[in-house]
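Sequence in, structure out. Go.
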Amino acid sequence: MNNSSLSATLISELTSIVGAENILTSTEDRICYAYDGQRVEYVPEAVLRPADSQQISRILTLANEERFPVVPRGAGTGLSGGSVAASGGVVLDLTRMDRIIEVDPGNLHMIVEPGVITTAIINKAESIGLLYPPDPGSMSVSTIGGNVAENAGGLRAGKYGVTRNYLMQIQAIAPTGEAFLSGARTRKCVAGYDLVSLMCGSEGTLGVITEISLRLVPMPKYRKSMMATFPDAASAGQGIADIIAAGLVPSTLEIIDNTTLRVIEDYAHLGLPIDAGALVLVEFDGLVESVVDEESDQAFRSLESSGATTVQQADDAEQRDKIWQARRVALAALSRARPTSILEDVTVPLPRLSEMIDRVQQIGQKNSVMIGTFGHAGDGNLHPTILADDRDEEEMKRVEAAVEELIAAALQLGGTVSGEHGIGFSKAPFLAQEVGEGSMEVMRRIKRALDPNGILNPGKFV
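Output:
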């Protein structure tokens, strides 16, 4: 059954490129690609599943000739609408390109195709005693190409950084069909424009990534985790800021407010202290045991002096895993609490973290909406998650007002509209508020220069 609006001739040409088994045109197939983590549905006109860069180049060349949009997509786990066909056209499903091409322990790098699942990269690195640090919450299903396109972060970002910090070289296809390469498999490279950084975080609007060389680091030998309870989320935020102000750099530093804490316990039955106003989860890692111990002891004392009600260190790996399981299941738990969950993503400077947490609670109360907050507090990144029912029009109006106020609050505190989820179409209306019209025009010029016909992921970003 073919319900695509693309012409039969064009469907035939696309089929000749990817093969009949790798073009999806039925409504049943296409609707599976109509969503990411957003609530809005955009059904593509067709889905193409290329096997290599040559097929991608031919598709983009044809798209420029025939003027139809192309939207690159990995696993579709994004949370800003970046991988859906908001302007129609075809979705380019890159999950067939899933090879780990090379692992080089001597040069501390790994070469992969864009469809490799993030956890597979992490596990492969760990199998040879190395670490690929970026660990987004969706890492067990997200693809590395999507991580690069969104510049994904994760729990370890406060110490280790985000995806951009681990990119050595990329190969990609320009919107007009030409293959290009940037970066090198050396530890340093300043040869030409830094197209690696330009492509990272560009959300599939400036090119289609076909091969990625990733930097690896030595695996830490020692880890120590702890969990602290606080009477309220704002004081927990201050406790987190105090740890950073003390010159400590935890590998992971997370916060979970009471609303989220109760939902997690109801979902996973981990024996969490549901009467706590908030939890702070901290982990230190390193290659020298005495250093890890010293940092952990300092953090323990800092949390106590910051007003923590309790501070508990994990005695063994089982306790450590239990602590981090609570954080890993936060989104899944919140998603089942009510029919609709809207996961927001705002980041503020660390000294303003406590104030932002306070503002989140005020915004929830003002608009009579339920908000559960958790996040990567070690880098100021919070995920206020609004729980609602999108069948209730009046409630959803209050939700929309709350979202706008959350973003305005982050900007007022010197923060950003998105720390790691990207802009896509969901936050495009807010981007100019942060960067200004001059920056928007520069980005538009870059887009027009690389994609003169506007075929690659239109309707996003700029």
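Check: The first helix runs from residue 8 to 18. The CA atoms of residues 151 and 164 lie 6 Å apart.
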